[in-house]
Amino acid sequence: MAFAALVSLAQTINLILNYHQTSIPTPFRNQIKSIHKNASFLQAVLPDFPKTPSSLEHRIRDLAYKAEDVVEIVWSEKIRDSSKSKLKQANQNHENLRYDFPDLEKVTKEVESIVKEVRERHKEVVVGFDKESIEVKEKLLRDASNLEFVPIVGMPGIGKTTLAKYTYEDGLIKAYFDVTGWVRVSQHYNLDQIVSSLGASIGLSNAKIEIDDVFRKLFGRRYLIVLDDVWSVEAWYKLKRMFPQNGNKSRIIFTTRLLDLATSIASYGGWIHHMQLLNEISSWELLRNRIFGDKPCPSELEPIGSAVAASCNGLPLAIVVISGLLAVDQKTVAAWEKVAQDVKSAISENDSQFDKILSLSYTHLPHHLRPLFLYLGSFPQDYEMPVSKLIKLWVAEGFLKQSGSNKSLEEIAEDYLEDLVKRNLVSAAKRRPDGRIKRFGLHDLMREMCIRKAQEYNFFLHVRGSLDQGAKILRRVSVTNSDLDFLYGSAIHTVICLCDRQRGKECTFDNCRLLRILDLIDAQEYFHKSDSLSNSLPDHLFELFHLRYLALDYPFSIPAAISNLRNLQTLIIASDNHLKHVELPVEIWRLPQLRHILIASCVFPSEQGATIALENLQTLFKPVNFVCSEEILEKIPNLKKLGILYKGDDEKTYEKDYELQNLETLQTLENLKIEICNFHKEKPRLGPDFPKTLKNLTLSGVGLPWEDFKIVSSLPNLQVLKLRDDACIGETWKTTDGGFSQLEFLLIDQSHFENWITESSHFPRLKSLVLYHCWSLEEIPEGVGDITTLELIEVDDCNACLIESAKTMLSYLDDMYGDSMVRVRFVTG
């Protein structure tokens, strides 16, 4: 973890030097410049250290942490003294957090000493599843009318989920069953989430999906349901009410590592499938395919690769992980022999040999990827986190180093996440239409390894209930079922709360002077009470000078004191209360580090009184009745994502000019959402052009005539288009050649158009077409069926003509091209 600590230290010093230069005393500037120079040197040589962290690396990490703490505290004291702030002084009982300038001199010398030592040292220094899938398919297709169960049982990492998915996605199986669905249960399951996820998987789109909704959807249909990673009979007892006994050969697949559970479930009627370890031939085939695909393996590497595969003792997960090491290293005999030796060393010890093989995936990671990988283990099993949030946390932690390219830190983070996927450490659970990862998955065994390594290196800790006194040197905690009393006077930098706290206590941050990340998005009532009419944020929250990431779950009023949070990068306020707008004070313009503002509904202040431009601001979502004046857009020139809500509340909102024509001046904007509602008179008008850089556009309630739609179709980089709530009006939409040149995803939801006239050449790259609540549309145009890139057509059940048209198109495609690659999916509206 030394690399992460050094990068964070360098970023902290950069922040001070770049944004507070005029007020920095010369002695302080010289000291931190020296520390920065030496930290940069240590970053550069760290990749040459041994793969297994050494005592020297641990010393570098601890010293980098100490140096950052001293720099931050001394600097914050300088700020307090110079501004004569009334902020509270440190509690005298916490001597470990009281530093002054001599401490800075001392830590500077310590850094120089360890650099000298390092300089001296540096001079010296899905294969195998065919047979099993056939057996499972035979069980699924048995001529037995009653509902039957097929538990797939085996040890962790043996490929239970992979086999289930391989079988589930088989074309014959999909054609045989009327309805198929998949849901992950896991050890610590949430019944409501399981029901909701399964309902969505079988085509339900209700806002709230109940058990009875799933039952009705499955009733009378032949269904196949996969319940992945089941741990208890109790979970099955709670779920079984969803599954009707139709007497039509419906089936349910379970995956579990518990034989007793599999036996118990199979006793209701079914057959257990016992997973087998791969033989040496299949092991090598799996390893070779993961690395080379269809290409041949060089002959000089084959004996080494075969021996490595055999060393994994037939465990598919171990083979996949090792393939990630061999695939990214140089494909030379020397490089492969080094990996082979590491595998041999790992399995030479009899205890937990599979754990040791998996650990190689960590020790072979480049230093810059290690903290990013371990960070994934700080969230609960099967916790669904958007990649966009994970990346914001990585940036706020200071894990990322700006490269020589023009890429932002967020773009660098996406590249690193893709690297983890290529190394088979993380799976891309869901991708966006443009191919970027939307949600990620982490195998249970990999997550357990992350947790072990993180605790071994004091990287983070899960807190359940209370924190031991000796653990207060930790920098990061994820909190479950706990108050935050342990934060008082601690050196903790990161707190991520993952569920409700114990009620009845006030939450305080009086002396958490180094807190950098505070995420309360999944925590209820830390600052507000559900039975209280007035809720406000505590004053001491705005004394956290080093805070970079703040996420809350209630539409609090934001006071002018937010200007004290000079290092704030991300402000998130997620709330179900859409009737209450969060009013941002004009002082928001005094936060030069701001990168992302995501608030369910906010009033953004005008640029009047703004002293600086928010040049780092990339995301603004979503201001209400936002006036896009030239003056305000000049102050946020580098926006990449903008979401705006226009709400007609009174006569003033009807008469106002929102100057949407100026959006064209945002030359870095990639994602734009405009939502208009409650305008009973003339609606805000769109400008004649959108920024040419747009890749993702959502329009809702805009009322744009179809004949004026060329301002959208002509966008050269548009990949995703979503039209909601009569975004366009008129009876007929007629497209022309030359438009939508890059469009891959098209959604039309709640539209009254009746005719759609188009040809395949008008959508040359379209992959997905989704039509919801198109009540009057008579048919899907025949030309859509001739789009060679098309993969999915999805319609809901509100228009019988549209359903019949989709079925006719699928039949046409099957007749023309045999087993069509286009999926047609019907969902319940």
Structural description of this entry:
With 829 residues, the protein is of the alpha/beta class. It is 35% helix and 16% strand. The protein is built from 25 helices and 28 strands. The strands form five sheets. The protein has a 17-stranded parallel sheet that branches. Strands 2-3-4-1-5 form a five-stranded parallel sheet, sandwiched between helices. It has a two-stranded antiparallel ribbon with strand order 6-7. Helix 24 (782-785) links the parallel strand 26 (768-774) and strand 27. Helix 5 crosses helix 6. The longest helix is centred in the first third of the chain and has 29 residues, at 55-83. The two termini are 49 Å apart.
Beta-strand level of the residues, as a percent range?
A: 15-25%
Q: Outline the biggest β-sheet.
A: 17 strands, parallel
What is the residue-averaged pLDDT?
Answer: 82
- What global shape is seen? globular
Gyration radius over CA: 29 Å
Question: Number of helical segments?
Answer: 25
Low-confidence stretches: 84-98
Binned, the helix content reads 25-40%
How does the helix and strand content classify structurally?
Answer: alpha/beta
The number of distinct β-strands equals 28
CA distance, first residue to last residue = 49 Å
Identify the notable features of this structure and list them briefly.
829 residues; alpha/beta; five-stranded parallel β-sheet; 25 helices; 35% helix; globular
